[in-house]
Write a structure and sequence with these properties.
The protein has helices at 41-45, 119-123, 126-139, 156-167, 181-187, 218-223, 241-246, 251-270, 284-295, 312-320; strands spanning 2-6, 16-19, 29-38, 61-62, 66-74, 86-90, 102-106, 110-112, 147-150, 171-176, 191-194, 207-212, 226-234, 274-277, 303-308, 327-331. The chain is of the alpha/beta class and 333 residues long. The longest helix has 20 residues, at 251-270. The mean pLDDT is 94.
Amino acid sequence: MKALTFKRYGKSPDIDLAQVARPTIKADELLVEVHAAGLNPIDNMIPTGMFKPVLKFQLPAIMGSDLAGVVTEVGSAVTRFKVGDAIFASLFDLGNGSIAEFAAVPERVAAPKPDALDFVQAASIPMVGLTSWQALKERAHLEPGQKVFIPAGSGGIGTFAIQLAKHLGAKVATTTSTTNVPLVRSLGADEVVDYKKQAFEHVLGGYDVVLGTTRGDAIEKSIGILKAGGKIVSLVGPLDKAFAKARRMNLLLTFVLGLMSRKIIGLAKKNHVSYSFLFVRPQGAQLHDIGKLIDAGHIKPVIDQVFAFEQAGQALEYLAQGRSKGKVVVKIK
């Protein structure tokens, strides 16, 4: 079969379409004919080697995590799906990729494709949906009436997280450029800071939750807009000791991550707020619940561009520019 692969880590990962063996499924897996694959910023980071100590791949490795497609074969232990079912899933952190004609998908990470979405739309959802769900519902326990700051509201995570936070009853603030203000308002943002005109830390205050989505010093600045008892859930780091322990990392890596996060955790404690790093995990049951919200009309996908399978490399290059409004998707079938 054809797949988008990278052959090595570093500055020249040799990303290209290649012929690889079709996956052989295990007893608890589905063989899925992939119709579309959603792209995420981490897809560009993995080949650099940045996550080599955390994410394990056998090279050459198939790229991508999110997919939507049709089940063509089921393992002997599969009980929830049958051949012909339309599903969507995230393969993130499972050692295999989605930008391919076929993918082996563990039953536990798959969910029925929402009826309201086509395959391209469905493929745009898994990672941003699961990340938003796990950050806002599981980690932050966002409640109706609370105030949440979600920076970069026009990006992949932002466009989904704003809608989920509004569904949970929160008041939402975000940042974006002038041209994207109408988009984030249409998604439900109550307060919009045009970062080209104002600094969010000079405008916002009294917030309960911050979703850390932007690199640089934004996380540290976010501490100042939180009320006592507030929470920062960061998707961009720094990684912390809790993450290292959850991943069963060795003592040296645990120590190093503790050093990396010591400054931000210290600042947070000084201001009576908490900091934690979130690494999304694939979860079919949560994805099923997200699908129900989509079918009910509470959340709609936002897609910037769709690329043909042969343009998958160009799609990653476009995503790396950081200007997309919503998601970038590769249509495979």
